[in-house]
Amino acid sequence: MPISTYRRYAYRLFKGLDNKPRPGTLKLLYKADVQMLPAMYLGTIILSSIIATGASLIGSFIVFRFIFPTDLWWLYTLAIVGSAIGFSVGSFPLITYNKISAKRVGIDSTLPFVLAYLATLSSAGMNPVESIKHVALKNFGPVSREFQKVVYREEILGEDIITALNFVATNTPSDPFRDILIGVTNIIVSGGSLRSYCEQQSKILFDQKRAKLKGFIDSLATFSEGYIGGVVISIVMGIIGIIIVGALGFKILFFTTQNLLDIFVFVVVPLVNAIFLAMLEMRFSSGEF
């Protein structure tokens, strides 16, 4: 089933959710540049959770009760069903927030160069409004797309340039870009020098970019040392501990040594690595190193 068809089907089932205004969800989708209604977005999450829960419950029950029977079938089933529910519920918001984070990183990385370009246009005699439209036609990635929204709201929706700039500034995920748009708005109103403002802000952002890159290298080194010194050694020590417990004939609750090894290898180790990868994603996807 194509993704678009699946989303339309989910919207038909849960379109009643749009009867209640959801400005928070609308703002989230706008920031991520996701062209979906809140009911379609939330309906896709709910429907995916229902399908994942049913499929994982039936599949794991058949596998661990009949194909590979084990005394701990209920534990494996609960673990798989719980993981399926968590993944299905969290995947769509995580993808959305990752899009917002990627957009913010793209804006922040491109913004110093855009400001330098705006300063050049201004020094050539182009006024701020024409400069914004000129950047919107260029390929500056997410910055150009944000300026295209300004142009769209001005020329298609009929808003004045100040209102359009303020709207985009309110809904952009990048704090530096928000400040730049507010500064450009003040320059248009007061008639100040766009060239001086862009040159000054570009220099500040370039300095911040160098500092962030240095912080990224330091943070990456810290995480790599933590993985080797924490995760890898903990896994090795855990396996050695299970072997020693089995050799001494001890039992933990009602688990045998083989049960402990199975749980450790197939549940604990993947879970620990997934948590570590999630920490890396959360730490570095925002661009705040």
Structure report:
With 289 residues, the protein is an all-alpha fold. It has 3 domains: 101 residues, no CATH class; 103 residues; 75 residues. Helix content is 81%, strand content 0%. It contains 10 helices and no strands. The longest helix is centred in the C-terminal third of the chain and has 54 residues.
Largest sheet: none
> Could you give the distance between the termini?
40 Å
Nearest-angstrom radius of gyration?
26 Å
SS-based class: mainly alpha
Which parts are unreliable, with pLDDT below 50 for 5 consecutive residues or more?
A: none
Give the strand tally. Answer: 0
Shape: elongated
Total of helices: 10
Query: Roughly what is the average pLDDT, rounded to an integer?
Result: 86
Strand content: under 5%
Helix content: over 70%
Number of domains: 3
Order of helices and strands: HHHHHHHHHH
Give a short summary of the structure.
The protein is mostly helical and 289 residues long. The chain contains ten helices and no strands.
Features:
mainly alpha; 289 residues; 81% helix; elongated; 3 domains
